[in-house]
Known about the structure:
The complex is a heterodimer of chains A (281) and B (322).
Chain A: H1 2-34, E1 36-37, H2 39-43, H3 46-56, E2 71-74, H4 80-90, H5 129-142, E3 149-154, H6 162-172, E4 178-184, E5 187-188, E6 191-192, H7 193-196, H8 202-208, E7 212-217, H9 221-229, E8 239-244, E9 263-264, H10 267-277
Parallel strand pairs in A: 2-3, 3-4, 4-8, 7-8
Antiparallel strand pairs in A: 1-9, 5-6
Chain B: H1 3-6, H2 9-13, H3 18-32, E1 36-40, H4 50-55, E2 60-62, H5 67-79, E3 83-89, H6 90-95, H7 98-107, E4 113-117, H8 135-140, E5 146-148, H9 153-162, E6 170-173, E7 196-200, E8 204-208, H10 212-225, E9 230-234, E10 237-239, H11 243-252, E11 256-263, H12 268-279, E12 284-289, H13 299-305, H14 310-321
Parallel strand pairs in B: 1-2, 1-3, 3-4, 4-6, 5-6, 8-9, 8-11, 11-12
Antiparallel strand pairs in B: 5-10, 7-9
Helix pairs in contact in B: 3-9, 5-7, 10-14, 11-12
Amino acid sequence: MARAKKSNREATLDNLRNEALKIRRNVWRALRAAGSGHMGGSLSAAEFLAALYFHHLKIRPDEPDWPDRDRFILSKGHANAALGAVLAQAGFIEDAVLDQFYAYESLFGMHPDIKMAGVEMSTGGLGHGLSIGLGMALGARLQKKKFRTIVMIGDGELQEGSNWEAAMAAAHQKASNLTAILDYNKVQQSGHVSDMLALEPMASKWSAFGWAVREVDGHDMDQVVGALDALPYEKDKPSMIIAHTVKGKGVSFSEDTHLWHNNMVPDDVYEKALAELGEPV
Amino acid sequence: MSAASTTPAWVEKVQNQSRLSFGLAVTDMAARDDKVVAVSADTLDLIGLREMVAAAPDRVIEAGIAEQNAMGVASGMATTGMRPYLCGYAPFITARSMEQLRNDVAYAKQRVVIGAACSGIVLGVSGGTHHALEDIALMRSLPNMTVLVPADAHEAWHLTQATENLDGPSYIRLGGKMDEPPVTAVDASPVIGKATTLRRGTDIAVIACGVLVVEALAAADELAGEGIGVRVINMHTIKPLDRDTVLAAAAETRGIVTAEEHHLTGGLGGAVAELVAEEHPTRMRFVGMPDEFAIVGPTPKVRERYGMSAANIMAKCRELMS
Lengths: 281, 322
């Protein structure tokens, strides 16, 4: 019995790993279609996006505005290639939309647009998502709805002071139906976060702001799923998952460097990236 | 039945102060609509929300002195079907949280109603950090935004109620802790986007908003004694601008004077000029704050110093008559 359960979980994890690989391949595909784009922060978020859309979130891809759906906000909106990828894989949008990244009149631009199916809020200006997510969480509470709100934020983004207003407010409101996932890839546009405007100590800072904090390896699907399954972490507190990740994860030349925060993607780069990523099942 | 007994209870409570009209109107709406929620940036008393705190405490979200977060929270709540009314100080709820206002509210087209107290130079002695003389320009430059400037507490009550029928964001410019002489009737029913004409002269048209409407009326009454017929238009909606009323004024009078407690850059005067320049060019004069930061001082004296007065409106009308 325990053996069967374990193998079910392994099958789930393998499936999610495969979806994460597809996200990475689709990110490079969208970037090649656009000619360039934000690969670094898109690739670091792949495991969590796969686990959210194929395991955790209560959503209906054929009914994107279902009132009781869980809400997900990509506050680090420049990783929209990865959001588009997972929305296509989950069936919110047509797969062909991924080839319309940055295209004239496309709803799939550099940053998320609320007009596209599955997108809960237009983001891209940094430091906005957590406040909006808190508003959604309070809206759920006031209407006695069970849906949960999850906001993915970036580390460089945390240099915007508005996040800390939201952090204080969410704790004050005891918004235990709100979760933040920090895609902590340690690199921002101009260099390593620690060299630009340091954010450490990260975990104790969030704890001090009144959040229940967990740290995980954001590329270890077992830990990713475990962190999501255990939500919420404490009664009357918002939850923070600090996901230690690698910017540009999965392709040797794009990992851990600001040079691939936002870069050109000619065909040869695309071919090389996909060859390194390998084929999904 | 005497007139007094039919006067609604809110009239006395608002004490001729539009800021209180906003909070009390929200409280009134909240009693009949459980989706109405107030978000306050440390303005519970300033905006008249104490009654709502007592009646519906769950639906008053005190966000603290943190306008950026308050704006985002209001937007997020609106996406879930709540009807948020966001209360703040005009100088801070616009400029401090402008990016949230633009992205989360206007760009995402969320139905957030912003009540902005202490606009213009209501906080005269506080100095330039606390004056809001650019808020109309900021708000009307945003697509999707409705911009309202009530002339008094009565109109503020009715316009706040009228936002129930809007499906996009709106901004209501309010006064502070000082008397705003009534110029509209208690039972007036202002329609968003439709100006009201308070005097029907045909020599000069004065298009005014907010606290300058009472000055425009005083100017018109004085000029009537000189045989000059002034049309006084209360432009309580800056956006969408009432094109028909403005263009009729351009066509039927010798010129238009605009009057507002706002910088001459980008406010009501700019909005009217943009329209008539293209559709019906006419001579214009502008009453408002020149392109400088105001001095410190009691509000009436500061207003007078910069010409936001009946006397200056009369002077501008006479210029257009000559």
